[in-house]
Amino acid sequence: MTYKLTYFNFTALGEPIRFLLSYLNIDFEDNRIEVEQWPSVKHTIPYGKLPLLEIDGKVLNQSTAICRYLAKKANLAGSDDWESLLIDIAVDNFQDFRLSIISYWYEQNEESKAAKYATLVNETIPYNMERFENIVIENNGYFVNGKLSWADLFFVGILDYLKFRSEIDLLKDRPNLQALREKVLAVPKIKSWIEKRPSTVDIA
């Protein structure tokens, strides 16, 4: 089977997919689009959004669904329906958190942007990161049921991008999340990917 991932030239929503493909030891084409190219190619993309994953020429969109599909192949999607539900909830919470940061970043009105950033720094980030830290404590170092799942890969995969956009060290004073990040990045196939992936502006 052939796999081709198309995304922008940074981590963000593309990186959890890259992590999962690497974890599965799948050789994939990492097709990166520069932001400057986007206006000229957007009309060719289903629903006008990235990432896309092509499997044997079949084009798939929606990053969360793609991750879940790959996670099932990797046995990282939960051992039963309840565990799968908890993983999905964790990922949806990460997505909500990501959107709050993106909402600030893309705000065009400078006054509104400053107000959003104040809320982000003083409320949104502490509120969410404290809860993420506590969930990992309660689950023996992971987000769900004390073992590695695609929720862990997703969180670590988007972390650099969120740090870059928020301009905040999200893991400061959060040792359990820091330890989780180190565990994910130490997974042999993911470590190999990290060592060879292109350098981008959002990678710390």
TrEMBL record:
Keywords noted in UniProt: Transferase
Task: Give the catalytic activity.
Answer: RX + glutathione = an S-substituted glutathione + a halide anion + H(+)
Boundaries of every GST N-terminal domain copy: 1-78
Q: Which GO terms describe its biological process?
A: glutathione metabolic process
The residue ranges of the GST C-terminal domain are: 80-202
User: Which EC class heads this enzyme's classification?
Assistant: transferase
Q: Name the Gene Ontology molecular function terms of this record.
A: glutathione peroxidase activity; glutathione transferase activity
Q: Which domain of life is it from?
A: Eukaryota
Name the InterPro entries for this protein: Glutathione-S-Trfase_C-like, Glutathione-S-Trfase_C_sf, Glutathione_S-Trfase, Glutathione_S-Trfase_N, GST_C, GST_superfamily, Thioredoxin-like_sf
EC assignment: 2.5.1.18
Query: What family does this belong to?
Result: Belongs to the GST superfamily. Sigma family.
This chain's protein is named glutathione transferase
> In the record, what lineage is assigned to the organism producing the protein?
Eukaryota, Metazoa, Ecdysozoa, Arthropoda, Hexapoda
